[in-house]
Amino acid sequence: FSGGLHGVGVSVVNALSKHLEVWVRRDGHEYNIAFADGLKVSELEEIGSVGRRNTGTTLRFWPDPSYFDSPKFSLSRLKHVLRAKAVLCPGLQVSLLDEASAETWEWCYQGGLSDYLSSELVDLQTLPEAPFTGAMQSRHEAADWAVCWLPEGGDAVTESYVNLIPTAQGGTHVNGLRAGLTDAVREFCDFRSLLPRGIKLAPEDIWERVAFVLSVKLEDPQFSGQTKERLSSRECAAFVSGVVKDAFSLYLNQHTEVGEALAEMVIANAQKRQRAGKKVLRKKVTSGPALPGKLADCSGLDVTRGELFLVEGDSAGGSAKQAREREYQAVMPLRGKILNTWEVEADDVLASKEVHDISVAIGVDPASDDISGLRYGKICILADADSDGAHIATLLCALFLKHYRPVVAAGHVFVAMPPLYRIDVGKEVYYALDDAEKQGVLDRITAEGKRGKVNVQRFKGLGEMNPMQLRETTMSPDTRRLVQLTIDDEDDADQLMDMLLAKKRAGDRKSWLETKGDMAEV
């Protein structure tokens, strides 16, 4: 299992360093090689002998300050990364020496994830007292976890890793952990008839006040973005969910006191959620404009849990309505490409019927800073995985950035990433976001020697997917891929969208297309 993707890690370090030296000890010999300004200045040579059990690598590099905003390392981030390695490799001794202050830090966790989680929650009440731990390993994947709950509240540890890489934004492996815990608790409560009448447990009832450390290892992990902060490998959710559910179900039935205490806590969470939902009643628009007729609204009253999918086309909209979870997912099909609203004033933007319907559906007026009437916690843009779909998604992003910026700033707008390919081999099914991911799946199938005819299907659009496929790939919280629309720098965002969509910037747009056009996948 490797955390690398393209094998360029140390190459990048070398390219951005004034000097880099490497020493390697193996097979009783020590070797050395050196680089300066990215170029080799000494050949690989044997420089001595060592004991056969003395193996390892030493790497020293001097970063070139001209490439960085600051020549200083983030000591806190370095400590976090090194401590994580010690946590994930039980018994490994990791040391960090800061020569500037002469301070030294050392980490070693003989008990791995359980020791680490307990040490981080030492002053807090936990349920159970010792974390629920588990591990499962197969030939191609592995998972380790430590989980507990904080009945009295407190700062919960929520850390996840893939092949020893921290995934700060979680991903499909964390979704799988949540699904596995949820299924096990629901099963325990149902089997013992613990649920009061009218109470239905939602994943957030179980997930509230949970503390966990999750480590998975995959042969070919897929990440969202180059920073590898979010795992997007679909099959990982099902793997983690399955092994966690089985292990936690067994644990709860062997530790019934813990199970009953946990059930009492999550039932209280569900009751609190239902009371809050009744106070925040989903806007049914008893006054003002009626909801658009094509909006298939959700039945649940919890606004924070509600999701609205803005779907390209009536065909895909029909499938999405069948695929959705009716309690908290709403669907509104859009006909064709909406108006380019980037240069349209807020007073005029509602003249477009599609924009008017979107505004009424979400419960927020254009250019309004008041988003208290927002009817959904998530607004998800769902368009085809082709150039037309990308154009529609861009126009919708522009609409929200220009006229509903407070909704974007509050983190309510997302873009769904539907797959472009379906790959069948035997009875197994894989989905791939693009050509690169498709090739990765095919390479993995070959490497694993899977039997059966390999069939690759390219989706022409969302309308080609049946409801089950649409749910699995784009709507189920456990397996879908959503990218949150965020604004890091408002001026940069405005300049980029201006260049892409403003009529007055046609010349700049042409120049940009001439230099960047080869990046497009049509």
Q: How would you describe the overall organization of this protein?
A:
With 522 residues, this protein is α+β, with helices and mostly antiparallel strands. It has helices at 9-15, 75-88, 113-120, 172-191, 203-207, 234-254, 256-279, 314-323, 346-349, 353-362, 387-403, 405-409, 435-448, 467-475, 490-501, 506-516; strands at 17-26, 29-36, 39-49, 56-63, 94-98, 103-107, 127-137, 141-149, 158-162, 165-166, 210-218, 307-312, 329-334, 378-382, 413-416, 421-425, 428-432, 454-458, 482-484. The strands form 5 sheets. A 5-stranded mixed beta sheet has the order 7-8-11-9-10, with helices on both faces. Strands 13-12-14-15-19 form a 5-stranded mixed beta sheet, sandwiched between helices. A hairpin with a 2-residue loop joins strand 16 (421-425) and strand 17 (428-432). Helix 6 packs across helix 7. The longest helix has 24 residues, at 256-279. It is globular and about 80 Å long.
In short:
This protein has 522 residues and is α+β, with helices and mostly antiparallel strands.
Record the SSE blueprint.
Elements: H1 9-15, E1 17-26, E2 29-36, E3 39-49, E4 56-63, H2 75-88, E5 94-98, E6 103-107, H3 113-120, E7 127-137, E8 141-149, E9 158-162, E10 165-166, H4 172-191, H5 203-207, E11 210-218, H6 234-254, H7 256-279, E12 307-312, H8 314-323, E13 329-334, H9 346-349, H10 353-362, E14 378-382, H11 387-403, H12 405-409, E15 413-416, E16 421-425, E17 428-432, H13 435-448, E18 454-458, H14 467-475, E19 482-484, H15 490-501, H16 506-516
Parallel strand pairs: 9-11, 12-13, 12-14, 14-15
Antiparallel strand pairs: 1-2, 1-4, 2-3, 5-6, 7-8, 8-11, 9-10, 15-19, 16-17, 16-18
Helix pairs in contact: 4-6, 6-7, 8-14
